[in-house]
Amino acid sequence: MSCSTGTLSEWYYAGHAAPSVMSLTVATNFDAKVIVAPSIALGSSAFDVRRGQYRSTEILQTLAAVKHEDWERVLGIVDVDLYVPDLNFVFGEADMASGVAVFSLVRLQPRGSRRDANALFLKRAGTEAIHELGHTYGLRHCRDPHCVMWFSNTLAESDRKGLTFCAAHASQLRVARRSK
Question: Which of 55, 56, 96, 99 has the fewest Cβ atoms surrounding its Cβ within 10 A?
């Protein structure tokens, strides 16, 4: 696997998601070097007591504030439930302008045998990581339900789409990464 000169950086809160597996998934799909950075605290202002959830947009602001100049992208991985106004939850959110994204592990936990559940959990986490990082490169939601950029309302939709970009989004990503 070749690595570009850019660096994608992942932030792991609470040590979830097997950093080596997630790093490899992201590095492979974006042809980039991945750095696992130290955890940072979630700001209490992002927590909505009434909903029992965190506003993902505020977490994006926190990530943008700590992003190093030489990092191409930052991906935050949290173990709390996320939302944006007008939606009951989000798997994740991204901001193209600042090059940061966040996704939550909370709703990705599968049922089933431990071995099967762990593999499915890691696939779901990889899918959400790739999807949100895709948004940081300007990729929009896709009409192809098998493309990683498909908008998922449910885990079944997320499971169907998998880890790969459709041809059109793969091409758009190549262009976006060259122009960074």
Answer: 96
- How far is 32 from 24, CA to CA, in rounded Å? 10
- Asked if 132 is an active-site residue, the reply is yes
Catalytic residue chosen out of the listed positions 72, 93, 128, 132: 132
Q: pLDDT tier at 149 (50, 70, 90 boundaries)? A: very high
d(CA 150, CA 23): 22
- The model carries a pTM of 0.87
2 contacts 33 by C-beta, under 8 angstroms: no
- Where b means 16+ CB within 10 Å and e means fewer, 20-43 reads eebbebbbebbebbbeebeeeebe
| Domains contained in the chain, CATH given | 7-137 (3.40.390.10)
